[in-house]
Predict the 3D structure of the following.
Amino acid sequence: MTHIKLFIPGPIEVSEKTMRAFSRPMIGHRSKDFQALNAAIQPQLQEVFYTKQPVFVSTSSAWGVMEGAIRNLVSKKVLNCMSGAFSDKWFDVAKKCGKEAEALQVEWGQPILPEAIEAKLATGEFDAITLIHNETSTGTMNPLAEIAATVRKFPEVQFIVDCVSSFSAMRIPFDELGIDVMLAGTQKALALPAGAAVFTVSEKAYAKAATMKDRGYYFDFLEFRKNQESSMTPTTPSISHFYALQSKLEDIFAEGLEARYARHLENAKVTRAWAKERGFNLFPKEGYESITLTCLSNNRNVDLAKLNGLLRTKYSCVIDGGYGKIKGTSFRISHMGDESTENIRQLLGWIDDCLAGV
Ligand SMILES: Cc1ncc(COP(=O)(O)O)c(C=O)c1O
């Protein structure tokens, strides 16, 4: 099978080194070897989360933890900040969990701003808020630090943040920002195979979870914490993801966190400049563009299926033809994970070549 290189915003390319780690032989999940593996990755995971709290690897995709956070923490009413396909869906998921939920909806591509959050939380109706830091469907990044400063004014509110497609691509200091749950998927900037998520939880959130009778079992935050005390997991985990994560953390610290963040920013800048030079508008409001992917408006009416077909046959790669209700009227180029700026420049050259043929 030809290897088609993925420049879609997740899953993304996984290096051979990571795949080798991922395919190491199994070990028992109740063995000393597993405990040693799990314990070995803790300090580095905590460093990337900027936290003293334990960090968990969940054998579920991000949605498992996103739903789990609702079940662990919402007893009164949750405010769902909505600005794209994933954040809009969180509102539906909260309701499907039987919770009272309210939408704070902005137009896709617009950011969620702290003032709007403050007005809602000041009503005193809410005990939790969900926010997607980097809305992958629209390539829009919300101003997390400013929002966190606002949410901190409401200590009764649990701040649940999806950093699924921004984690490890920029500094997101969990403890300092006062976040209560922060989660990420493995198939995004971490450049691991899909199928697992990483997350951490604040003391305030554990205390709330302890009061919740119907928080379930699989995503019970207290179960995760109790097991992690002996470097264990509540259930049989995807051991392969632990190996792959160990290998990836090695790479991340070999490059250095700051260098990694700078590379992601540079990739984004190069892609945005290229888009503008080619006459494409950027989909997100100016100043709120994602640093891990670029979402372009298809204002040139390019036949995106044809473009991707050419990229696939000529260059064995694909980009993304848009997501949800903006599929076709927008498209997305991912530049997260292991991609160097040279790789991104090469990709943009390939797209130029294929654009000439559509
Ligand atoms: C921002 C964001 N949140 C949540 C998800 C859902 O992740 P998963 O399908 O891996 O559960 C995605 C997937 O692309 C995403 O981009």
In short: The CA atoms of residues 20 and 244 lie 8 Å apart. The longest helix spans residues 257-277. DSSP finds 13 helices and 13 strands in the chain. The mean pLDDT is 98.
